């Protein structure tokens, strides 16, 4: 039996560059909250293709450390960083979000998906007054057990979405202040969302690759 591929790895292999559930719309909203500058020292957790890190450095001139658990993803990230000519400002390494290889109070900003069990670790490496820009799946209605089970099966990942109100409570209980939330539809796999994230021709390429025999499982 062949092991099923995790959803975001599959999409990255097809050529998708935007892998956060809310796509570029959600990522842009997060960045607007970050108050980035050239002096910002930033950590991106699970940086995937390093698309966001590269764009942040190109826009603000900040320095970024990235961590990812997947060695294959790291190879692609380093290639993308080098191609962009940003080797001196963006560094990536293999690490687990649960045990980040950085001292306390290291970063002004962290951007990532919200791994519930890693929130204390994010707080540890943030400087006092630092900002956590986090993006994850949530829901607004009650009794969504069947829908959440279907989501886990579709993306082949044990996601742990919370109700919007529970996300707010969680961050406040962990010691964060001034928690600001925004939510919308999950656009990762919708055609309009993909076109907005990847462009028309990029969406066609991803769809074509996804329809190949070896990818239709």
TrEMBL record:
CDD domains, A to Z: AdoMet_MTases
GO MF terms, alphabetically ordered: methyltransferase activity
Keyword set includes Transferase: yes
Domain Methyltransferase per the UniProt entry, residue ranges: 37-172
Source organism superkingdom: Bacteria
GO biological process terms held by the UniProt record: methylation
Transmembrane segments: none
Keywords: Methyltransferase, Transferase
Name of this chain's protein: SAM-dependent methyltransferase
Organism: Streptococcus mutans SM6
